[in-house]
Recover the amino acids of this structure.
């Protein structure tokens, strides 16, 4: 049994922490809103009063927080978790954050003798509940080996993609693809509607051809039903596309469609839709086309 401190029990973190309990680990969870520790406690885990409390004596600490500044605030600094963790222990940051921040966490960890792995995920809330997440891990070989048994309790596709920060770079590519494909699905649905085609039937046949994708399978039905409860919030995808555009610029790479998607996602948020699922890009295509209820 491993003692695991788990910080950030939101949409993703809560079911991931529960799966760690089910796998036989002793899990001590902390969340800023204390009520969110309830699913963990109900499954046999424990609640901590502070992040430091959760990290004290833990073999492994996992963070699943919204954004880079949240992870920096909790992990780094004079009172940061790295100062509370024992040498030889392991920090796994599973949040989606900037690759350069992930590199900084690993450097600081190395200085203190703590293994650090960046291990962002894809697969959404359902993947977190079912422990079928796709996990892209960055870190040195020893850190990854130490993390693997813990990651296996939360995901079904786990790949060591490279050194510190590489996991976040792969996750950024994931968000670039997901955002762009949702936008094209949204445009296709509005296009089909304008031509009076039965969209259910269209989606059925499209899903079997080259245009078939996990996004069409998982998002089209909700889009047709105009059900935009997240899921993955526009606010978070906006954050991720900021990471993508900055990292592309830094590397000197052109991402014209990605930049356009980032702009559209930002506009959707500015229109007050930040709390909706990212498939709400449909609302904007409808609006631009003078159609729908948006
Ligand atoms: P969320 O907002 O539901 O959860 C984040 C949790 O962290 C909240 O419960 C919040 O109270 C807590 N929190 C924030 N700051 C804190 C702090 N300083 N100390 C302690 N707790 C704090 O977000 P989520 O959907 O669970 O996403 C978490 C991360 O996973 C994000 O980086 C997101 O981009 C990524 N992600 C989300 C999904 C998804 O489908 N929701 C999928 C893949 C990756």
């Amino acid at each position: 049994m491993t003692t695991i401190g788990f910080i950030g029990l939101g949409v993703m973190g809560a079911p991931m922490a529960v799966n760690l309990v089910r796998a036989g680990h002793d899990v001590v969870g902390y969340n800023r809103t204390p009520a969110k520790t309830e699913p963990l406690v109900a499954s046999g885990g424990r609640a901590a009063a502070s992040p430091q409390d959760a990290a004290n004596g833990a073999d492994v600490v996992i963070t699943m927080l919204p954004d880079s500044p949240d992870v920096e605030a909790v992990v780094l600094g004079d009172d940061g978790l790295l100062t509370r963790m024992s040498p030889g222990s392991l920090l796994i940051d599973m949040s989606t954050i900037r690759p350069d921040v992930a590199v900084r966490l690993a450097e600081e960890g190395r200085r203190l003798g703590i293994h650090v792995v960046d291990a962002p995920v894809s697969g959404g809330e359902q993947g977190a509940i079912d422990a079928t997440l796709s996990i892209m891990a960055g870190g040195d070989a020893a850190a990854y080996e130490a993390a693997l048994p813990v990651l296996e309790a939360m995901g079904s596709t786990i790949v060591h993609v490279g050194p510190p920060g590489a996991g976040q770079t792969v996750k950024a590519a994931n968000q670039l693809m997901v955002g762009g494909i949702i936008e094209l699905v949204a445009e296709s649905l509005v296009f089909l509607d304008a031509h009076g085609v039965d969209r259910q039937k269209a989606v059925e046949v499209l899903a079997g051809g080259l245009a078939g994708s996990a996004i069409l399978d998982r998002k089209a039905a909700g889009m047709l039903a105009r059900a935009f409860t997240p899921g993955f919030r526009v606010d978070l995808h906006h954050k991720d596309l900021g990471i993508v555009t900055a990292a592309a610029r830094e590397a000197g790479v052109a991402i014209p469609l990605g930049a356009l998607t980032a702009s559209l996602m930002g506009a959707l948020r500015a229109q007050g839709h930040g709390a909706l699922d990212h498939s709400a890009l449909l609302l904007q295509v409808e609006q631009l086309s003078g159609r729908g209820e948006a």
